[in-house]
């Protein structure tokens, strides 16, 4: 029923002349893999732009050669090396203040420079914090490093120093199977996101991690792309369109 509710929600959007701007962010890429190739093939098949959040310290030239030829793919900065610096008593965090603000900012500046150098015009000045966590004090400093937007998980909040372009549906069940969530629960989350606002255009960000996808994860993506590709209320957009949305 949740899948049908999502379809009904999209249909209502279409009747009212509203649009859902869809985007997908896939985290943790460092090199070409069979799973990444499968995800990129979905992008090509459905003509759906995707954003690959690459780990700058470990990203390879082989990954750059793969992505540089794919105009539908953009590459964001996934922290520096995806290393946890928080103590065991806290949630994992690379971009906290545990090492001092200046150290973290230096790594983020280096990360942006390396992604731009490796991926050329596929690179976008978008920071994706590992584990979707970043100390608020650091956010205020990001524009001075050249970042134009930040992407974490959850509803966007206005009033920050730079644009938030968040994801809203995480397809992986991190606290349970560590594979894909059941399809109906994912469609329920997507429908809830679309029902939460009244703007003419609403964004819906899907978060994936290709390295841990199981059959449930791939099945959902296949179904989601097929459902949204030709729906009159749906528009798959590059993340740059959301970064500069007025």
TrEMBL record:
Mind telling me which residue stretches traverse the membrane in this protein? none
* CDD domains (alphabetical): CE4_u4
Highest taxon of the source?
A: Bacteria
Which GO biological-process labels does this protein carry? Answer: carbohydrate metabolic process
Q: Which InterPro entries match?
A: CE4_u4-like, Glyco_hydro/deAcase_b/a-brl
State the name under which the record lists this protein. Answer: Peptidoglycan/xylan/chitin deacetylase (PgdA/CDA1 family)
The lineage, from the top, is:
Bacteria, Pseudomonadati, Pseudomonadota, Alphaproteobacteria, Hyphomicrobiales
């Amino acid at each position: 029923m949740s899948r049908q509710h999502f379809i009904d929600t999209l249909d209502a959007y279409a009747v009212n002349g509203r649009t859902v701007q869809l985007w997908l962010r896939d985290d943790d890429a460092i090199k070409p893999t069979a799973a990444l190739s499968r995800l990129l093939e979905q992008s090509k098949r459905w003509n759906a732009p995707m954003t690959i959040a690459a780990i700058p310290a470990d990203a390879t030239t082989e990954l750059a050669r793969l992505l540089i030829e794919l105009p539908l793919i953009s590459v964001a900065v996934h922290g520096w090396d995806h290393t946890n610096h928080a103590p065991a008593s806290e949630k994992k965090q690379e971009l906290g203040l545990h090492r001092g603000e200046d150290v973290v900012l230096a790594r983020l500046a280096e990360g942006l420079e390396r992604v731009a150098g490796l991926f050329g015009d596929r690179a976008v000045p978008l920071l994706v914090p590992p584990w979707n966590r970043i100390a608020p004090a650091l956010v205020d400093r990001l524009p001075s490093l050249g970042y134009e937007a930040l992407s974490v998980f959850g509803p966007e909040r206005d009033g920050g120093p730079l644009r938030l372009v968040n994801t809203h549906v995480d397809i992986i069940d991190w606290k349970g199977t560590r594979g894909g969530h059941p399809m109906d629960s994912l469609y329920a989350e997507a429908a809830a996101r679309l029902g939460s606002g009244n703007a003419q255009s609403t964004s819906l960000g899907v978060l994936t991690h290709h390295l841990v996808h199981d059959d449930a994860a791939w099945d959902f993506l296949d179904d989601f792309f097929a459902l949204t590709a030709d729906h009159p209320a749906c528009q798959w957009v590059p993340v740059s369109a959301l970064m500069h949305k007025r």
